[in-house]
Design goal:
With 193 residues, the protein is mainly alpha-helical. The chain is built from five helices and no strands. Helix 2 packs antiparallel against helix 3 and helix 4 packs antiparallel against helix 5.
């Protein structure tokens, strides 16, 4: 009877230990999940506080890289495999970072170009508004219009050299005809006075 009681006691103790072990595992898992959620929230708060979009995107890329690196380092893979994976991760991060910086540089160039075009248009409008002679103003507007058309021809990457030359020659003919028409109108207007 004493042996039976001892065996039952030991079984109960083993069951209690197993339940405690399971509970501890559940607590550990919940703690890890909570720590992960806390880190994600802290990262989100950090990124939200960065006002510059470019810096925010680069910081997000770095956070993702650091998180992936930490996961690899904590994995149970062989050390040689971890090192290979870390090296590949770093290469991918560097490529992604360079791509992101290049994209941001292009966006900045485009923004500056748009600003300069708007500023040039405003300056041109101001200059044209200052011209009182209607014929001189018409000449200036014609020259500006044809210059803009020529720029568009040069910027069109789909055109071959001989096509550009043909279009530019035709634009020059049209420009000269338009200027001649303005000169003729001015001559008629002066003769009528």
């Amino acid at each position: 009877v004493a042996e039976e009681n001892a065996r039952q006691f030991e079984q109960q103790m083993n069951q209690i230990k197993e339940r405690n072990k399971q509970r501890q595992q559940e607590i550990d898992n919940a703690t890890k999940e909570s720590a992960q959620r806390t880190k994600e929230l802290q990262d989100e708060i950090f990124l939200t506080n960065i006002k510059d979009d470019n810096a925010r995107e680069q910081a997000k890329l770095k956070i993702d890289y650091d998180n992936s690196r930490k996961e690899i380092e904590q994995s149970k893979a062989l050390e040689k495999q971890k090192q290979a994976e870390l090296k590949a991760l770093e290469q991918k991060y560097n490529i992604d970072l360079n791509d992101l910086k290049e994209e941001q540089r292009k966006q900045e160039e485009e923004r500056v170009k748009e600003f300069e075009e708007q500023l040039a248009e405003l300056r041109t409008k101001t200059r044209l508004d200052g011209i009182k002679d209607q014929f001189q103003k018409a000449r200036e507007e014609t020259l500006l219009d044809f210059n803009k058309q020529r720029e568009e021809v040069f910027e069109n990457e789909n055109l071959k050299a001989f096509e550009r030359i043909a279009i530019l020659a035709e634009l020059k003919k049209q420009e000269l005809a338009a200027l001649a028409a303005i000169d003729e109108e001015e001559a008629i207007s002066k003769a009528a006075k």
